[in-house]
Amino acid sequence: MRQRMRKVNINVHPLVRFSEEQFDEYLERAMKVDDKSLNKNSCNKQRNVSNPYVSFKAIQPTKEWGESAEIRVLKFHQSPKALKELSEKNNARVLVAVKSENTYGNWEYGDMYFWQLAEHILSENVEELQRDVDYGMYEWRMSIYHHSFSEQIEETKALEEAKHQVSQIIGEMLTKNVSFSKLKERFIKGLEEKENRGKYRDKTWDYRSEDDKVNSHISFLCDSFHNMEHIEVALITAFLEHAIVRFKGEQIDRLQGGDRQKRIKHSDMKELVNQTGVIDIINSFREELDDMEEQYKRHFQDAQNYGGYDGNEIAKA
User: Fold this and answer.
1) Which helix (H) or strand (E) covers residue 112, if one does?
2) What's the confidence (pLDDT) of residue 200?
3) How sure is the predictor about 317, in pLDDT bands with cuts at 50, 70 and 90?
4) Which value, in Å, is the radius of gyration of the alpha carbons in the chain?
5) Domains of the chain by residue range
6) Any idea what DSSP says for residue 84?
7) 275-307 CB burial, b ≥16 within 10 A, e <16
8) Which H or E run includes 72?
9) How far is it, in rounded angstroms, from Cα 29 to Cα 22?
10) Is 85 helix (H, G, I), strand (E, B) or coil?
11) What pLDDT score does 35 carry?
12) Do the Cβ atoms of 76 and 53 come closer than 8 Å?
């Protein structure tokens, strides 16, 4: 979490860990939340180590805990709104009990910053073992504040959207007679399909600017891709990638002045961008277009030499 995280998703959906009874309780409690109870801390009472709100198992070696560990969360000191933005500057804490090789098999208690735990979750250093409904509600409330913060919408609007999703699930279970097991099976299958589409998907559009016009451009680009063929998306993204690598590489070369070992500071790069940034980008786009045109001509000529061409051959160019 070296950088501020505007969009986060640190949760495991309750369908994955809850029993049917727990999920029914979770849905019922969520529908009762209003703007006055949105910031309620449902995990503010310290639990016994045998009854944690949520627990995790380390699946990767960590600096704090060693090769293996179990981490049980026994209390959230702050309310959900305190965690709307996760960064190293956020001082919201949780009380945890940890048992690992470093504790010689004993439970050791102490506070840790929540962003530290979230970092392990996001980095897939730990996996969730269990959760209860109180933690599910805390996390649901926290996700509403995340959504409000990242999308720059009113908290009441984010709550309304979250409750609408809950009501849709309830409606589907009642009107379509969808069982809990079927719902769970379908959701887990959807998660697996999402993972199979690529691990970079969640990070693809997480950039946000303080300029709303820039955010609008990014949103338009993302929406447009959904209405394009693969070959079109591949061409546009390849062009942008090559152009960015080209002009950023040239800027770094300029600052290094032939000394490959010279370390470039962010302030140096920013100053250069302020001086020649727009010109560098335009030149990079022009050079990349020239290269693409040459590739197209070569491929087009090859197609003619080997018996003509059709739409597919032109697309390959």
Assistant:
1) strand 108-113
2) 47
3) very low
4) 25
5) 14-196, 228-316
6) S
7) eeeeebbeebbeebeeeeeeeeeebeeebeeee
8) strand 69-76
9) 11
10) coil
11) 93
12) yes
